[in-house]
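DM between two lab members

TW: hey, do you still have the DUF3576 domain-containing protein entry open?
JB: yeah, one sec
JB: this one, 154 aa:
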Amino acid sequence: MNFARAARLTIVATLCAGLAACGDADPGADYSRTRPDESTTRIQDVLLRSENPNRAVGVNKYLWNASLDVLNFLPVQTIDPFTGVIQTGYGTPPGGGRSYRATIQVSDPALDARSLRLSLQGPGGAAVEPGTVRAVEDAILTRARQMRIRDGGL
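TW: and the structure you got?
JB:
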């Protein structure tokens, strides 16, 4: 027997032994009746369940991208597309003198004002005027609509 053939047989035997060691199943168990709990959700289930390509995990892509676009002067600290939350660090808007940080939540797949929640804070957690928050929300919603029109979504 030549060396190459012996090496191949050794590799195949090792792989077979390794696969056999992986199975610690009970040979008498009836696995046809065991199913994962219906209340648990895996990431694969969430991603594969979507019928609409614009809705992968329940976050409107236009609001999400518009939020990042409008608030691009703020450094992103954490971002979670599964919950729809974007948290930023402090930054100063162009032409502005006061720094802000923001927490944005896109809570629904609809391109709607109710799907967007915005919280702005000044230095030291100081409150921001409601008019400023409303103006930023309006800018995000306007930019999201522009993106949707550009993509031919209307």
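TW: got it. DSSP finds four helices and four strands in the chain. The helical segments are 3-22, 43-49, 61-70, 130-150.
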